[in-house]
Design brief:
single chain; mainly alpha
Length: 126
């Protein structure tokens, strides 16, 4: 999913948003440098072609909470339900995991945070 994340990041950068993409190289244990890096951001996004429930996003969110990092985590992955058979690209697109869908979802999350009268991202992480 690194290539997909990079393409989504290119789209977001084109909209004037600052984005950093990291491929963690391994999942467990969570690399301590990722915790330090996350401290610098208002939002952390994980993208995986695995189940969201109990996936890397859940693990990273827990590690960030344990470390006291206030940045909320938005996890994108496969929903916990039965999926139709098909080509991988089609299934990922159906799950909102295309670069276009990811960029749109992330942009909307950030835009909602900036809207007046809307709870801030930091409030979501409590």
């Amino acid at each position: 999913m690194a290539a997909t994340a990079c393409e989504a990041a290119r789209r977001l950068t084109g909209e004037g948003l600052g984005v950093t993409v990291v491929d963690p190289a391994w999942l467990k244990p969570v690399n301590p440098s990722l915790i330090k890096l996350a401290e610098q951001y208002r939002l952390v996004v994980t993208v995986e072609d695995n189940l969201r429930v109990g996936g890397y996003g859940s693990l990273l969110a827990q590690e960030l909470r344990d470390a006291g990092v206030p940045a909320p985590v938005s996890g994108f992955g496969i929903p916990q339900r039965f999926l139709d058979h098909g080509k991988r690209a089609d299934i990922l697109a159906e799950c909102g995991l295309s670069p276009e869908d990811l960029a749109r979802s992330i942009h909307l999350r950030i835009a909602a945070d900036r809207a007046p009268g809307v709870r801030r991202l930091e409030e979501d992480s409590r």
